[in-house]
């Protein structure tokens, strides 16, 4: 058939879950916590705001004011739907920022809260969100000390968006940073992974998997305090939210220039999550969590820290999943049950958009 029989193809209208990286406009993948997010920060925001505090690019900034060491973090929450099994955008907003502070070893103290409300949203909905925030703050032992409210025109929002920022005090002797991961460190995770992302997707798409999957959203500050009580020299803590456990591990490997080897058979993936991910074509390693942490601990302290984690209600299913190695620096690999290995790479964008 002659070439003239074919109509020209307009590639500009095509979309895909892993957007091409050569573009001049924001795409959903830029908010997914993967490679696109990292490039946006590295090449656009960091040069514009450049300073030594920001350069560490942790979940919380480490600050000094007088003799005090503070952690300072901010986060925005645009989850859809606003209410989901196990939680809502309200408690998610509190727990997310509290956990970012806790991952710096800080004792969370104060939060700010900014509401962006769409014209027409029911006051009863806003009230339920605010009540959930208040209850989560009381549970976490923090005060919502200041806030702001803006309203946008109907059709220019999605009901309720929330921004929170938080401040916490870092105890003396605590130095928790991704750069401190070292060969020989044991990698611990505090429980089943992938639960939050699958819970969101199940209600968003009206899917049923035989049992209700509930989000794991929770404040991890108490768990971290118990871990520090037995080992003040924790090397790294991270809550694997956007981009899941795989993204957090890749970020840590890159920051510390170490390799990470996982035992794939030790990864705590619940059967319900595994089945849902198989149905949806997802990898649980890349699915978001909101009430789990990953810890890097020197081998001589790993057993004590693991025992402390298992003694806490939020860490009773904690397991060791791997260790740091001097080989393949900056890369994460998983040892499979068949005796081989596979690379666990950084995702380009996000498998599940709008999950936090």
Assigned CATH superfamily of the largest domain: PurM-like C-terminal domain
The helix-strand sequence is HEEEEHEHEEEHHEHEHEHEEE
Name of the CATH first level of the largest domain:
Alpha Beta
Number of domains: 2
User: What portion of residues is helical?
Assistant: 25-40%
What is the radius of gyration computed over CA atoms, rounded to a whole number of angstroms? 21 Å
Distance between the termini: 51 Å
- Outline, from the CA principal axes? globular
InterPro entries: HypE, PurM-like_C_dom, PurM-like_C_sf, PurM-like_N, PurM-like_N_sf
Domain PurM-like C-terminal: 183-328
Protein name: Hydrogenase expression/formation protein HypE
Family: Belongs to the HypE family.
What this model shows, in words?
With 356 residues, the protein is an alpha+beta fold. The protein folds into two domains: 58-169, 60s Ribosomal Protein L30, Chain: A; 178-343, PurM-like C-terminal domain (Phosphoribosyl-aminoimidazole Synthetase, Chain A, domain 2, Alpha-Beta Complex). The protein has helices at 35-49, 89-102, 123-140, 195-204, 221-230, 244-256, 271-280, 299-310; strands at 61-65, 68-77, 83-84, 87-88, 107-118, 143-152, 160-169, 186-189, 236-238, 259-263, 294-297, 319-325, 332-335, 341-343. The strands form three sheets. A seven-stranded mixed beta sheet has the order 9-11-8-12-10-13-14. Strands 1-2-7-5-6 form a five-stranded mixed beta sheet, with helices on one face. The chain has a two-stranded antiparallel ribbon with strand order 3-4. A hairpin with a 2-residue loop joins strand 3 (83-84) and strand 4. The termini are far apart. 43% of the residues are buried. This is Hydrogenase expression/formation protein HypE. It holds the Pfam family AIRS. Residues 59-170 form the PurM-like N-terminal domain. One of its GO terms (biological process) is protein maturation.
